[in-house]
Amino acid sequence: MNFIKSLFEKKPKLSNTELVLDLFYHGKYKECIEKSDLFLKKSIDNRIDILRIKGLANYKIKRFEDARICFEEVAEATNIKDDWFNLCTSAVRSGKLDLGQTAFDNFFDNNSIKGGNTLLSQPNVLYQYMLALKDVGEYKKAHEQLIRLKRFYTSLENHSQEYLGQRAVPFIYTSLVTAKDILDNVYSKEQIHAWLDDFKKGVDDYGKESIEEFRENFYK
After folding, report:
1. For residue 7, is it within any domain?
2. 3-state class of 119 per DSSP?
3. Which of 67, 96, 117 finishes a domain?
4. How far apart are CA 144 and CA 210, in angstroms?
5. 14 burial class (0-12, 13-18, 19+ CB within 10 angstroms)?
């Protein structure tokens, strides 16, 4: 009887934020955007939360300029690192490189507020920024981030996947595969081999193994 009764009981009404977030997590991105727009037309206290979710939904369906518009307002309002990161990647992918650089710098600014996304370690943000720049064909700018990422790896004493994974650091092999187009557009084949050789000098046996696996798969 209690089970049957429960079928007819009214479920708690979701808040505006919970509603659009539920649509987002169920992959209903366009519906999430439409519902967000309805709420944003009204004067609501949770405007920034709704805008953030709308931005994420737009990003998921590669509407990068629409995502950028959302994240720009959000990041300027919150000064939270997670929001600066979202603005960085959406701005780059919508062709606004200067804004992307500004957002990237603000992520690393000591005055910006630490967010809740534990995956946004500094090396992972470097990696994601490099990836975004590569995807829009900005190989020289992407190369600058690759150099910074390489420098970060060589500052570590342990390069095992377990160690890197626990610290939200991209695996060396993953970073190199992502960077292949960058290397190909910046260096000659001989220079690539020299670059890999130099990289090997700064990492442990795990790192050396990853570098040689990359070389074997792509440059033999």
Report:
1. no
2. coil
3. 117
4. 21
5. exposed
